Amino acid sequence: MLHYAVVFFVIALIAALFGFGGIAAGAAGIAKILFFVFVILAIATFLFGLIRKG
């Protein structure tokens, strides 16, 4: 999932470089959402791993 966030971030950077503001904003928004979903799932997995060991 982090891979997809990075891909959309790169798409946003390239689109912004060429002046496509709407596409860049959309790709950046998707990248941001995917990144936060990744962080939440990573924290949940870490916590469940701690609970299961304890």
Describe this structure in words.
This protein starts with a helix and ends with a helix. The protein is built from two helices and no strands. It has one domain (2-53). The longest helix has 33 residues, at 21-53. It is mainly alpha-helical. The model has no long low-confidence stretch (mean pLDDT 90).
The number of strands is 0
Q: Give the topology string: H per helix, E per strand.
A: HH
Structural class: mainly alpha
Shape: rod-shaped
Uncertain segments: none
Largest sheet: none
Radius of gyration: 15 Å
User: How many individual helices?
Assistant: 2
Percent of residues in β-strands: under 5%
Helix content: over 70%
Mean pLDDT: 90
How many domains, in number, for the residues? 1
Cα-to-Cα separation, first versus last residue = 28 Å
What is the strand and helix layout of this fold?
Elements: H1 2-17, H2 21-53
Annotation keywords:
single chain; 54 residues; mainly alpha; 2 helices
Can you give me a brief rundown of this structure?
With 54 residues, the protein is mainly α.
